[in-house]
Amino acid sequence: MALILRQMSGARSQTKGMPVISVSKRSAVEPFHAMDLLGAATRRRQTGKPVISMAVGQPSHPAPQRALEAARQALAHGRIGYTDALGLIELRQGLSDYYSTRHGVTIDPGRILVTTGSSAGFNLAFLGLFDPGDVVAIARPGYPAYRNILNALGLRVLEVGVDAESHFTLTPESLEAAQRAAGCKLSGVLLASPANPTGTVTGRAQLKALMDYCGTQDITLISDEIYHGLTYSGDESSALEIGDEVIVINSFSKYYCMTGWRIGWMVVPDHLVRPLECLTQSLYISAPELSQIAAIAALGATDELDGYKASCRANRDFLQKRLQDLGMPLLSPMDGAFYAYADVSAFTNDSMDFAYKMLAEIDVAATPGRDFDPVDGHRAMRFSYAGSRADMVEATDRIAAWLAK
Ligand SMILES: Cc1ncc(COP(=O)(O)O)c(C=O)c1O
């Protein structure tokens, strides 16, 4: 099993003849290549190029109608202000109802914190749970921002390779082996299900085995459930169905189609609420009130959102076959989320170069596997199918013609 124990590396910048402004070591994180690609695609589009982006996990569907209407009404009343750091009680209550309806568990709204997207939830969790030097395990391939945030906060990242043998998820055995090989003791484990970029859904039995292991080893499990609502195969259990000794992070960005509203939430054990509230007060004050109001309404929009999910499922079926026909077999099954993680080794050994050439030559943006996997990602690309079918058909037609040249 391949694994890497990563540590911060830093840099100082100095311009000749100018006052020296230092750059912190902690800011020397890797670029988030999907976001770089998004930026490059946007710049090309601004020059009139017919760019299609399958680079970021961003639904083409707008925020649900109910959410938009609630936001319009709030704007008509004029004042949008700070809220309690923990969030509007109506939203926290709505989220508590969500757990009862979707997962059959009772969660006290007092344990729910509203955050500025799940990204803020990661900052809060890492700051609230760990100290500099602590080691946190993540899956490789996995969402790159985990690695970058952990590094920026002075934590050490243990990347644990996942593959078909481990059903592309972290297991007690793989965590044990990785710690032994790296000679370290984990403080935390971060697991996403459904996962980005592999689409893996970690079933209830596997999740329970992981939680039991973490419980006995004094390891805190953080469960990233941001792709809940977008599972096509397998069971979508919340870690909260299994126990309360877990940190759950979620967001309105994906199933709820509200990426730009920057609104998410976390569920934590009682004793963590106050420390995380204090961190939130100083780091963010509160999540945006307008987005919180819209999110309350979005929770009731499941009919509309299940329609979006159905379109994702159809896109998935289309892309699964199309990539195979293009000579890019899937590296993992597309059980959830909205990504195809494909093997492009028939065409390149440098996915970064492949991605930028594809953008420059046929105006199609997709994300190099290097973003998710520093070891094997050079032979993989991630294609997001969160967008429209028409875009996907056009993008893959362009790719087919390009590869045929
Ligand atoms: C696995 C995973 N977690 C978290 C995020 C961040 O989402 P947000 O901050 O929009 O809630 C993403 C975004 O793509 C993701 O893929």
Summary tags:
405 residues; alpha/beta; Aspartate Aminotransferase, domain 2; eight-stranded mixed β-sheet; three-stranded antiparallel β-sheet; 13 strands; 14% strand; globular; disordered N terminus; binds pyridoxal-5'-phosphate
Folded structure, characterized:
The chain is an alpha/beta fold and 405 residues long. It folds into 2 domains: 27-62 and 303-404, 3-Layer(aba) Sandwich (Aspartate Aminotransferase, domain 2); 67-300, Aspartate Aminotransferase, domain 2. It has helices at 33-46, 65-76, 89-103, 117-129, 144-152, 172-182, 204-217, 270-283, 289-298, 302-325, 351-362, 389-404; strands spanning 3-6, 52-53, 112-115, 135-140, 156-161, 188-192, 220-224, 247-251, 264-267, 339-343, 364-365, 367-368, 380-384. Strands 1-5-4-6-7-8-9-3 form an 8-stranded mixed sheet, with helices on both faces. Strands 10-13-12 form a 3-stranded antiparallel sheet. Strand 6, helix 7 and strand 7 (220-224) form a beta-alpha-beta unit. Helix 2 (65-76) runs antiparallel to helix 9, helix 3 (89-103) packs parallel to helix 9 and helix 4 (117-129) crosses helix 5. The longest helix is centred in the C-terminal third of the chain and has 24 residues, at 302-325. Mean pLDDT is 93; it is low at 1-13. Pyridoxal-5'-phosphate binds next to helix 4.
